[in-house]
Write a structure and sequence with these properties.
Length: 338
């Protein structure tokens, strides 16, 4: 089922949580609502679910106006950030809950629970209670319970938020595989760009209630619409365009700032006409990549990212004199806060 959000706004008192949001979500797609705390992403998710009513605008599901439909009429599965499992019910009973209140026969419920336990790779734990499972397992149970009613749309609010790094990575891959098998239109909220980049077909970047940009992970990263998107989707150096590092025809601009990704800084040990001097402040080993903090002659501090192979060639050490130049940079007509 496709979703269309049309100029939707929502206020809570004087706080504008969502401001004229417009978004098209294709059938069977998986989209992430990404943004900082307070950007409106969870409110927009609740508006799609029917848990909140918009002050303005309309919501369309499968081409039909669903703005005034109840939660049940929308046939949406919702997974809350805290899982919201019933502690006094077993895992099987939690998954069965939505089907039982819909008066589905006991035989069908039993069969569906078994199928879902297998789908979430937890066969054999149906008789356990939520407290006996890990955080990642409880999250999978919450997903199974949402899928049990065979929703046309699945909404997830910060599905990876309370998990450690390893479980997060595993659950991301699992959710992507689950989506590819179930073909349910899925929308999930996250403040972590890694979650969005790893899982989603498309990402909607939100900021102060606005949707700043919608695109594939590659489009968002390589072609950000503005400085806010560029800064939120990945590390960035923000430098004045008057800095001599940018005195090159390739980077001519009338805008006051230039935005430069750490991996787009070239480091050399020998000066040439296109480089400026810098000093290595600190070197941080990040596994396959090395992060170097560099101080330019005028005091500006920038961060560069190198492959391990390039680092081994340069043999960088703190206080070492090096020479840097931008490989590519971006400027934007409006000075957004990032």
């Amino acid at each position: 089922m496709g979703i269309a959000v049309e100029n939707i706004s929502k206020c809570f008192g004087n706080f504008q949580a969502v401001d004229r949001a417009t978004l098209e979500i294709g059938q069977d797609s998986l989209i992430a609502l990404l943004g900082p705390s307070g950007s409106g992403k969870s409110t927009l998710l609740r508006l799609i679910a029917g848990l909140e009513t918009p002050d303005e605008g309309r919501l369309w599901l499968a081409g039909k106006d669903a703005t005034q439909q109840s939660v049940r009429e929308r046939n949406i599965g919702f997974v809350f950030q805290n899982y919201a499992l019933f502690k006094h019910l077993t895992i099987g009973q939690n998954i069965a809950f939505g089907m039982e209140i819909r008066s589905i026969s006991a035989a069908k419920v039993k069969k569906k629970v078994a199928e879902l336990l297998e789908l979430i790779q937890l066969s054999g734990v149906g008789d356990r209670y939520p407290a006996q499972l890990s955080g990642g397992q409880r999250q999978r149970v919450a997903l199974a319970r949402a899928l049990a009613i065979e929703p046309k749309i699945l909404l997830l609010d910060e599905p990876f938020g309370a998990l450690d790094a390893r479980v997060r990575r595993d659950l991301r891959a699992w959710l992507r595989q689950l989506h590819d098998r179930s073909h349910v239109t899925t929308v999930f909220v996250t403040h972590d760009r890694s979650d969005a980049m790893a899982v989603a077909d498309k990402i909607a970047i939100m900021n102060k209630g606005y949707i700043e940009q919608v695109g594939t992970p590659s489009e968002i990263y390589h072609h950000p619409a503005n400085a806010f998107v560029m800064g939120f989707i990945g590390p960035v150096n923000v430098l004045p365009s008057s800095l001599n590092i940018f005195q090159n025809k390739r980077f001519e601009t009338t805008n006051p700032q230039m935005f430069l990704r750490p991996q787009d800084i070239a480091i050399e040990t020998i000066s040439n006409n296109s480089t400026v001097a810098a000093k290595v402040n600190r070197v941080t080993h990040l596994g396959s990549e090395i992060q170097a903090e560099l101080a330019l002659d005028d005091g500006q501090v920038i961060t560069a990212l190198l492959t391990r192979e390039r680092f081994d060639e340069l043999r960088l050490e703190p206080q070492q004199q090096v020479f840097v130049k931008p490989k590519k940079a971006k400027s934007f007509p409006i000075d957004y806060s990032i």
